[in-house]
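User: Could you go from structure to sequence for me? I need the amino acid at each position, not a summary. Structure tokens:
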């Protein structure tokens, strides 16, 4: 079973950037559909982006043009590059295995907090 650990979150001003990492162990991410999700207090969990075992990627409309998802097979790690951050991007971000076609997440990590100040 895969274990996932996220890092890279923090406090940043609006317009700034952060790069989140998700290190996997127990299974090779190159054979999985992996993704990022976020959840803010009082809000529903939201799908953010996915990188598929084929190498293809998909990002939600809410972050399109600002966020980029990628994978480093040699490091068994996936990344989320977040640019032009907005206060509404503040949330707990976590990575997970993505179940298609619904884009639900499973086997998630504990998450990393992102806070964007205005």
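Assistant: Here is the amino acid at each position, in order:
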């Amino acid at each position: 079973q895969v274990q996932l650990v996220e890092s890279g979150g923090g406090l940043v001003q609006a317009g700034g950037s952060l790069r989140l990492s998700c290190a996997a162990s127990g299974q090779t991410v190159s054979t999985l559909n992996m993704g990022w999700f976020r959840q803010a207090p009082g809000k529903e969990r939201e799908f953010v982006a996915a990188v598929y075992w084929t190498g293809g990627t998909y990002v939600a409309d809410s972050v399109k043009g600002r966020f980029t998802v990628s994978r480093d097979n040699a490091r068994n790690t996936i990344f989320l590059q977040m640019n032009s951050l907005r206060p509404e991007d503040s949330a707990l971000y976590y990575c997970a295995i993505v179940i298609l076609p619904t884009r639900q997440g499973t086997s998630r990590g504990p998450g990393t907090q992102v806070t964007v100040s205005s």
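One structural detail worth keeping in mind: DSSP finds no helices and eleven strands in the chain.
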